[in-house]
Amino acid sequence: MKFFKIILFLASIYFVQSEIEHVCESGKYPPDPTTSFVPTYVVNLDLPPSQRWLELSRKYEKPLRTLVTYIKQFVLEFSPKLQKLIDLIDNKLGLVADSLPQPYGEEIKGIANATNIELGELVLYNIFYEVFTLCTSIVGEDSSGKMYHARNLDFGLFLGWDIKNDTWIISELLRPLIMNINYTKGGELKYKTVTFFGFVGLITGVKPNAFSVSVNERFNSNGGYIGLFEWFLNINRNQAWTTLVARDCFENDDMDFNHVVKTLANTPLIAPVYYIIGGPEKQQGAVVTRDRGKAVDVWQLGTNNTWFIAETNYDHWKKPLIIDDRITPCNRCMDKLGKENMSFEGLFNVLSSKPVLNKLTVYSALIEPKSGRLETYIQFCPTPCDPF
Known about the structure:
Blueprint lengths: L1 H16 L15 H4 L3 E5 L9 H25 L4 H10 L11 H12 L3 H13 L2 E8 L5 E8 L6 E2 L4 E2 H6 L3 E8 L2 E9 L7 E4 L3 E7 L6 H9 L9 H10 L5 H10 L6 E6 L6 E6 L4 E6 L7 E4 L15 H11 L6 H8 L9 E8 L4 E6 L10
Parallel strand pairs: 1-6
Antiparallel strand pairs: 2-3, 2-13, 3-14, 4-5, 6-7, 7-8, 8-9, 9-10, 10-11, 11-12, 14-15
Helix pairs in contact: 3-5, 4-6, 11-12
């Protein structure tokens, strides 16, 4: 019955979307700070990994626990028989933390100890972002060659609908956990990220005057679930977690734009993914389309005289699903914006245009790779709005 309801829901989306007006927005920047503000915190890399998140753990334990509790309740509502799965997660999945590349396993264990949340549940929380994130990312340049990078992060598909507030429940629970993190070492800024508290990988980040990265999920039959099972069963651990290898690039002081593109194109991965990479110099932009083993395509800014490239969750040379076409409106609004108007304001307007902005969108991030300027805003899509 639940499967039938999902199919019926998907079938209805096409007709719902046809009733929603899709226009290229203007005047959306800057958004109202009372609803869009994202706090910024410092994580000191000189501290032992298990201690880096202690202060934030005390502050964010409650909203993180609320999210983790909801996920367990959702699983049990789907089928009470899945209680055995939850028990397995609580009792066994925590052991995976010891197998993760360091310092990430120790960071997760430190958060678990500080919040008294089961280690297995926090490991699962981190795994979610390896296989279950919808997004839109853009990298491009203005008429002077100044580089920009922007993204919407969409999360929560099919994990429960809030009828009262007309939105996805997970998306609602994630917004209070959004934060900007400035990672420092020796008292100096090393890099900046946008993250959800409790997640230690990297899905959005910038290293000033070096590079920027955003990570988008890629739908593929040889998907992340296969890689996860291989890791859990110790069949193959000679593959990297998609968001941890991204953070590795930021931890390495020798990395620049070209090295990051090469690393993220060639490192074997647990899951297929898109890496959208920006640099501080003219035409330093790329979308790396990844299979688990290697890149199947590296799309460079400037190809066919492009001044921007945009990526959602489908290969750029293929048509997206008819019920999930965010790329066509995104490209249309970018073309309307024009190279001469490329700016934080212009990009935010594009990211605020439906269906680029949808019910799953939890934040928009705007980045200047050269200066390291990063602005993040919590996003909401008022009804009528595309569900994704």
